[in-house]
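hey
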């Protein structure tokens, strides 16, 4: 079964969550797409808010994916 959920930034195959350069920064949402590599993901990271990023692609194998 494949879900019909929307284009959530948190489910993007190019998203990598890493530690920031300083302890006070905490976690940083980095994009590994070749166009934006190393930049922060445009997000948003809110429930039920889809990203309008044109580079988004679904991450395979997540919960609910077949
Ligand atoms: S910027 Fe776009 S392509 Fe990059 S991780 Fe975020 S949603 Fe995915």
């Amino acid at each position: 079964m494949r879900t019909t959920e929307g284009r959530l930034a948190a489910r993007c195959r190019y998203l990598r969550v890493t530690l920031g350069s300083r302890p006070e920064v905490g976690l940083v949402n980095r994009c590994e797409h070749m166009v934006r590599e190393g930049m922060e993901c445009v997000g948003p990271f809110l429930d039920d808010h889809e990203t309008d990023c044109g580079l988004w692609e679904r991450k395979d194998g997540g919960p609910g994916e077949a």
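The CA atoms of residues 14 and 33 lie 5 Å apart. Residues 9, 12, 14-15, 31, 33, 36, 41-42, 51, 53, 55-56 surround iron/sulfur cluster (CB under 6 Å).
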